Every structure is written in C-alpha cells, then in structure tokens.
UniProtKB/TrEMBL annotation:
Ranges of residues in domain Glycosyltransferase 2-like: 15-128
A Pfam family that the UniProt record links to this protein: Glycos_transf_2
Organism classification: Bacteria, Pseudomonadati, Bacteroidota, Bacteroidia, Bacteroidales
Protein name per its UniProtKB record: Glycosyltransferase 2-like domain-containing protein
Membrane-spanning parts: none
Length: 287
C-alpha cells in the first residue's frame, strides 16, 4: 500500500497539527489543501511534526473551492505519483494512540486490493458516544463520512471523481451511494475509532420538556445541507429520505435558529435559498 492522505483546511487552528500527528507517521505523503481565502490564511507550526519532514505538501489557490474539488486535486496527484490508496480526513479529526496503525493492519488483513471503500467507526466528541457499537466485526454500511475513509485509487477509474458541484455537504455520501449501485461495498471497521465532531454543536437545550442539541451551522453550510439534500434525493431516492432530511435540516433548524442561534436572519435566508435552489436543480457554489 502506497498511501496518500489529504486534509482539507478551512480557517484551521493549532489543534490541526496535533491531529495530524496521530496518523502522519504511517502515511507516505500528506497533502494539506487550504480552502481558506488567501487574505485570512495563517501559518501552522508544521516543523513540530517529527514525522513530517519531506512528507507534507502544502497546496491551495487562495479561495474556497469546496470539498469535492479539493479531494479531486488529491485524486489527480495520487494517480500521477503512483499511490495505491487515498486517505481523506477533516481537520478536526484524530486517531487514538496506535489506532491508525491498527486500521491499516486491518485493511491489509481484509484485502487492501479489494474493490471497496474502507471506513472507521466514529467517536462523536460533542455527544461522547460512538456512531456504532464498537465490535471486532467488519460490516457493510450504506455510507461513510469523508473523514477517516480510505479509497483504493483504482476505484476512481471505475466510479469517476468526487462530485464537485455539491461543493460541501453530501460529497462523501454521494460517492458511497454511487459505489453501492456498482456493487462496491462500504466497509466499516467498527473497532477502529476516529474522534470526530458533527457540525458546530455548542450547547444542549430544553424544548417542550426534551433535551435537544442544535447543530449551529453557519449560513453557507445551512444552505448546502438543504439544497444538496433535495438534489441527492433526485439522484438517489433509494438512499435519501427527503422528508426526514428536511425535517432535520430545514424545519427543526428554523425552530432552533429562531429560539437559540445567532445570525438569525442570514441563516433563515440561507435555508430558504437552499430550498428554492434545490427545487430548481441548481448546484455549484452559492453566490
């Protein structure tokens, strides 16, 4: 296995360097693609990474190209430089001690050359729980998040690249659902935990006697969550239940924004624009 990793940066802080240290030693190279606008970029202390000398590639074009486009830059680099596998990671994700080594060992044992998407279990930091019960099994799941997934580079010849027009939300799900239609499984190693967080959950609240945990996405992310859900339902009606998606990402968000969140007008406007553009079939970057 010749393994390239990519981390997409967006207004990163110093915790990114600590996160990278949990997996860098086992990578052959790591691409850091910075989607932060050039005027707001800051330097990270990468010199503190003992395993990083000669391994880290810094790239970006001074603007936010979205997740799909950044991932496709890594796919192109992997193809051109003889990498066999691609690891994709969010900047706020990290592995526990020696957990990444165990992950790679488990993939090799299962069969690294098999046509499959490999993924981890997730320890959700804000909820202090795992997505799946940790077991020693390797189970097929319907989709996996970008962060922690490992793709054989040959899969991109079979399935094509990541869907850039979604820009942010749903890029990972769409690729997994596309694979499913080609009978390519998404495999979850449920004993491998990746510490991860969902959205921007900050504070639990009480609503009608129940505890709720608003996902306080900013306006742009709120827009893509709604719009892309509608677009992906049209493409994969068997995979995405639109009523459930809108109940969480539109109707509940409206209530939570009005009651608890800041930037009320801009977020509500973003939700309405996302709903409108989804119905119109509009994709790409929201301007």
């Amino acid at each position: 296995m010749k393994l390239l990793g990519i981390v997409i940066l967006y207004y990163p802080d110093d915790s990114v360097v600590k996160n990278i240290a949990t997996y860098l030693a086992q990578l052959d190279e790591l691409m850091l693609w910075d989607n932060t606008p050039a005027t707001d970029r800051r330097d990270l202390d990468l010199d503190s990474l003992e395993d990083g000398r000669g391994k880290i590639i810094l790239d970006g074009c001074g603007e936010n190209l979205g997740i799909g486009s950044a991932l496709n830059k890594a796919v192109a680099y992997a193809r051109a430089n003889g990498f066999t596998h691609l690891l994709t990671l969010d900047q706020d994700s990290c592995f526990g001690e020696r957990n990444f080594e165990s992950y790679l060992r488990a993939i090799r044992s299962y069969g690294e050359d098999k046509a499959a998407i490999f993924s981890t279990n997730y320890f959700i930091k804000s909820q202090q729980t795992t997505m799946y019960p940790p077991t020693d099994s390797v189970d097929e799941v319907y989709s996996a998040m970008t962060s922690g997934s490992i793709y054989p580079v040959s899969l991109f010849d079979t399935l094509g690249d990541f869907m850039e027009s979604l820009f942010v939300w749903g890029v990972d799900c769409e690729f997994c659902w596309r694979a499913k239609r080609k009978d390519i499984p998404v495999l979850c190693f449920k004993n491998i935990l990746l510490t991860h967080d969902l959205g921007y959950q900050k504070k639990k609240r009480r609503l009608l006697g129940k505890e709720v945990f608003p996902n306080e996405y900013g306006p742009a992310r709120s827009y893509y969550n709604v719009r892309n859900g509608i677009l992906l339902h049209r493409l994969y009606p068997e995979a995405l239940n639109l009523k459930s998606h809108l109940r969480y990402h539109f109707y509940k968000r409206v209530v939570f924004i009005i009651l608890y969140e800041r930037q009320k007008f801009s977020k509500l406007w973003a939700l309405l624009c996302g709903y409108r553009d989804g119905l119109r079939g509009k994709s790409g970057k929201w301007k």
